[in-house]
Amino acid sequence: MTTLHSLPKITERKKKRLGQGHGSGRGKTAGRGTKGQKARGKIRSVFTGGSLSLVRRLPLIRGKLRNKSISHDPIIVNIKYLHILPEKSTINMESLVKHGIVKKKDAEVYGIKILGDGTIQKAFTVELPCSNSARKKIEKAGGKVTYKVA
């Protein structure tokens, strides 16, 4: 049977968590005294003497451009990155996601556009929006672009 004097001594105490409720033993003011600069929260580390709130100090955040639509440019894929796709394949959103060129969620939200940076040797059928330079390079390599603008 184990007795109390034979147990190992605990030399380290766990740090007491600073709770702010009544059950923590540090209720109401949470051990910060009553009033004054050091009793305030960390957001207002320097007490400014009751000045205007942050929102009222920055009126442009409140009203201007508040109703602006959230839009984003499409994801750009240059034709130099299409060399990993098999020849004579169809390039659309699903094939680019499948080969890891773009992320599915981003492609669905923003769309994809093919740009003409780089060279291409393989013939592809492209079903995505293309720039004029990309269209020329794809057709020069023997491929075709079937995307129609609505």
Please give a structural write-up.
The protein has helices spanning 54-57, 59-62, 93-98, 104-110, 132-140, and strands at 75-78, 90-91, 112-115, 125-126, 144-145. It has 150 residues and is of the alpha/beta class. The protein has a domain at 75-145: Ribosomal Protein L15, Chain: K, domain 2, CATH 3.100.10.10. The strands form two sheets. Strands 2-4-5 form a three-stranded parallel β-sheet. The protein has a two-stranded parallel ribbon with strand order 1-3. The model has no long low-confidence stretch (mean pLDDT 82).
Give a short summary of the structure:
With 150 residues, the protein is α/β, with parallel strands linked by helices.
Set down the secondary structure blueprint.
Elements: H1 54-57, H2 59-62, E1 75-78, E2 90-91, H3 93-98, H4 104-110, E3 112-115, E4 125-126, H5 132-140, E5 144-145
Parallel strand pairs: 1-3, 2-4, 4-5
